[in-house]
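FAQ
Q: What does a multi-component entry look like?
A: The components come first, one per line:
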Amino acid sequence: MSGWRALPPLLLAVLALAGCEGVQSALEPQGPEAARIALLAEVLFVGAGAILLLVVVLTAIAVYAPEARRRWLARHRVVVIGGILFPGVTVSVLLVYGLLLMGAGEADPGRATGAGAEGGGSGEPIRIAVVGEQWWWRVVYQEADGYRFETANEIRIPVGRTVELELTTADVIHSFWVPKLAGKLDMIPGRTNRLRLAADRPGVSRGQCAEYCGGAHALMAFEVVALSETDFAEWLELTAGPAPEPEGEQERRGRKLFLAAGCGGCHTVRGTPAAGTIGPDLTHVGGRLSLAAAILPNSPEAFASWIVDNQHIKPDNRMPPYGIFGDAEVEAIAAYLASLR
Amino acid sequence: MALPLLARLPRGRSLLAWIAATIMVLAIGGFLLASSGLYNIAASVPHIPVTRWFLHYAMQRSVSTQSLIEQYLAGQPAWRRALEVEGADRLGAAHFQGGCAFCHGAPGEPPVPVTQGMRPAPPALSEALPGWDDEELFWIVRHGFKYTGMPAWPAVERQDEVWSLVAFLRRLPGLDAEGYRTLAYGNSPPASEPAAEILEEGVPPGLASCARCHDDGLAPAVSRLVPRLAGLSRDYLATALTHYAEGRRPSGIMEPVAVALDPGEIAALADHYAGLPRAPAADAVPADPESLALGERIATRGLPEALVPACLACHGETRLAIFPSLDGQPAPYLAGQLRLWREGVRGETPQDRLMAPIAKRLTEAEVEAVATYFETRAGGAPAEGQRP
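Then the predicted structure of the entire assembly, as tokens:
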């Protein structure tokens, strides 16, 4: 009977394994940093499984085996080898292996991908500053010629290039974690932590703040989009530039409302008078994969509900809810923002 | 002798039983008296002297103790600063004229006779006031009295308004009819002027109530606690009046006035004030240059490190019609509103939900600085092309 009772939890556990794949899985690495972590994890899981099996067998011997066998188990040599030598050696070997593995290729993960455009070599790393804020991510690209531009909650990188992330925080401790690309690294007030990573194939990885940072901590996610070298260059040129001019009548009305309602006090839309630095840069917000730190899909409807109802969507976030607008006004502003590609 | 008598009194448990029995007899007796209806509650029949003395005594003790408790609990009464603002007494007087003189009368203006049939009759204040100190007056005006006709302040959280009334009450005992009229009527025409004449000039109804405190295109508002209305947008003015009437923007002074207006009157008044040329601002208050510079920084650039956006992002030239221009508004009024948002007194309306989080990020020094900066700022595009 007791065996049958264990079945439902076991089934559930098997089902839970399905959660191990997808955009946020450390077990499905998308770059050399995460691949090494996944390898180390596999070694640990398999090794620990084998040792667990061994311990179970030995326990069974100790309980059920005939006396002669049990006496063998109690011999001095068996205890010294199995109880002291074996764990000591295993743990030491694992430690050395782990340190070597984690150190390997750390300086230039881009080279390790073998996927880089010009012969696997990655050249100068791409520098991106990421600032954790309650509860979103400020992303600042620093180009080789010194030009800087901002975006938010989405980091686009080229496949096969080393990316150096400068991690800082504007307020409390956050932790930057994209499981498919690298291990986690804290963002600590007063410090700049550097994280190097690379992607070996195009695709989207989801990241999340991994250190409790206040009420809406669980709603502070982001996306890392790995693009081919050419797609990335195209994206970079577009995103570094000013916002597109609104084309439709509604979008133009939306821009007028956006500026009149003071949105520019906190948000920047490059190419317009809106130059606030408190909230996310919205210059190309319509081209991002998601909104509000990767918790809403990117659609005019999501923009509209965020503008009016953001305090319910992300409680206590720093943006006040704009209940002063009528439906038509909200739609116009949402259409304008969605057009900022 | 006393001692043998004491010795005969019941002790211990039997004493308790005696006390309980006495209380029960009194309670039942009281209930029977009330049930019989023999006690006459008619206002037309005066109290017997001992009742009058007792009620009065209890009232005085209650005010004295409760005002002490309130002061103690409130700590430093920050709102008291309204008392010191120039013209606070005129604001208080104007409200007194609209809200209190009806029952209490005023110098040269007897109370409405109907109210004198109340028991207790509302006292003439020039005689009743001297017995109370400022804190007690504040408590009485703010909380009112049970079992009398004296109401609590309509927006009990607006302590600043109550203090401005206290500022007037301090002056009341020394006022004659002429002095009272100067103080209480503000910019409104004398009561003697025939109403028909005003109406002929196309002045919206209700304007006399507004003009008791507010600017009228010629003269400024009676106090720097009062906002300048001339040149504010009609959308902003109409929204504010509606919010006052609905009680969503709490004000014991504005709510009774706004409640009496129908939507047509609100629109007419908003139109009227939106079209008025701005009166020349009162002499600018000398301000500390360092504080002014801070105010200018908050207004034009904000304090990004404290998550405070620039005021002019919303209140600048390109603002929405429902956002007010702040240029030239008196500093005590602006600072007072920022404090109301900070303390959570204003927080009901969609506009409040925009301002409250920002106001809460400002320090007291920043509130003062930015309010003073806007008072000195004469920008904006005043209606009628007239620059102050």
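Q: Is there any commentary attached?
A: Sometimes. For this entry: Chain B touches chain A at residues 302, 304, 307-310, 313-315, 318-320, 322-323, 350-351, 353-354, 356-358 (CB under 8 Å).
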